[in-house]
Write a structure and sequence with these properties.
The chain is an alpha/beta fold. The protein has 10 helices and 8 strands. Helix 2 links the parallel strand 2 and strand 3. The protein binds uridine-5'-diphosphate and magnesium ion (MG). Uridine-5'-diphosphate binds next to strand 1 and helix 3.
């Protein structure tokens, strides 16, 4: 076992949710790649309230290997919470976040580390060359989301992933951002610093299917956009002005018709107007509601995650 080198220590953070079947094999693979490349490292495994045997496996690994630390959250907080728990505990001079289903190939790590160490790059993003096996609808929805995100928040995250290496400075900057609801890949882009990208091909999932349902992805997407941009609110105002202009024109026309004795009989116009106004108001209220809900959540200031248990043997014990 290599001696931990605080100068060059790489913390690998892995969120784990119901991955008992593959987690040990994943850790072995990551450990082997890093040892072969001679990179000093520690592994921080965060069990995000798994319902299966994941925690038992992680605790066993933490007992057996000096460079593994395991954290168990008190319930399923979601990947963002698990990543936050891991990064908060990272001791390294840099840290990388990666999925534990090996869709983020560990073989990319040495190149990411090299860019950090030799070229002083502070944020190394692994970019998806190909999105791997995924259904068409998912790809289409993801493209839409990234398009909307770019248009509203001004950050291009297309083909970005959570697989990225952050220098200590970037980790600390990220930790300083106070919001409870995080969106790691956007926040770690927003912080800036010197950046580089490496390509990777999304491997097939080592086991089973994605832990994210369509419902959860949709809610994450809405959350992401409203966390990073007030453009939807501005659109409500803009929509209001456009409608006002239309109504002014319609009003002038109506008065003119009335005065000219050519007023339109019947309710069609009235019904249409009511429907348009009613629908628009509901949508506008909905958008405002989403922001109010966000403010409410943030104001409560609840922690991003809660820890139930930790097992660690510090890398310096090695
Ligand atoms: N994950 C998690 N909490 C969750 C859902 C997922 O910690 O509530 C972890 C999961 O164990 C994996 C990573 O997040 O390590 C990515 O999950 P998955 O592979 O299911 O997502 P996808 O490949 O579809 O992006
Ligand atoms: Mg995956």
């Amino acid at each position: 076992m290599e001696k931990a080198n605080p100068q060059g220590l790489l913390s690998v953070v892995m969120p784990v949710y119901n991955e008992a079947a593959i987690v040990e094999e994943s850790i072995r693979r990551v450990g082997k790649v890093l040892r072969d490349a001679g990179i000093p490292h520690e592994l921080i495994l965060v069990d995000d309230g798994s319902a299966d045997d994941s925690w038992a496996k992680l605790a066993g690994l933490a007992n057996g290997l000096p460079w593994v630390r395991a954290v168990r959250l008190s319930r399923n907080f979601g990947k963002e919470g698990a990543m936050a728990a891991g990064l908060d505990r990272a001791l390294g001079a840099c840290a990388v976040v990666m999925d534990c289903d090996m869709q983020h190939p560990p073989e990319t790590l040495p190149e990411m580390y090299r860019l950090w160490q030799n070229e002083g790059i502070q944020v190394v993003e692994a970019i998806k060359n190909t999105r791997g096996k995924e259904n068409r609808l998912h790809t289409w929805a993801a493209n839409w989301f990234y398009g909307l995100f770019r248009a509203s928040a001004g950050l291009n995250l297309r083909n970005a992933s959570d697989f990225r290496l952050l220098d200590r400075a970037a980790i600390d900057a990220w930790k300083c951002m106070p919001e409870r609801r995080t969106f790691f890949r956007a926040m770690s882009t927003w912080v800036g610093f010197t950046r580089a990208q490496v390509g990777f091909d999304v491997a097939p999932r080592a086991d089973g299917k994605s832990r994210f349902s369509v419902r959860r992805l949709t809610s994450l997407a809405i959350d992401a956009i409203t966390s990073f941009s007030a453009v939807p609110l501005q659109l409500v105002t803009l929509g209001g002005f456009v409608l006002l202009l239309l109504f002014a024109l319609l009003g002038i026309q109506t008065v003119y018709m009335k005065l000219a004795g050519k007023a339109v009989p019947g309710f069609t116009t009235v019904i249409l107007l009511l429907l348009i106004i009613g629908g628009t108001l509901m949508v506008a209220l909905g958008i405002i509601g989403i922001y109010i809900a966000k403010i409410y959540e943030e104001v409560k200031g609840r922690p991003r995650y809660l820890v139930q248990e930790e097992k660690q043997s510090r890398p310096e014990d090695a």
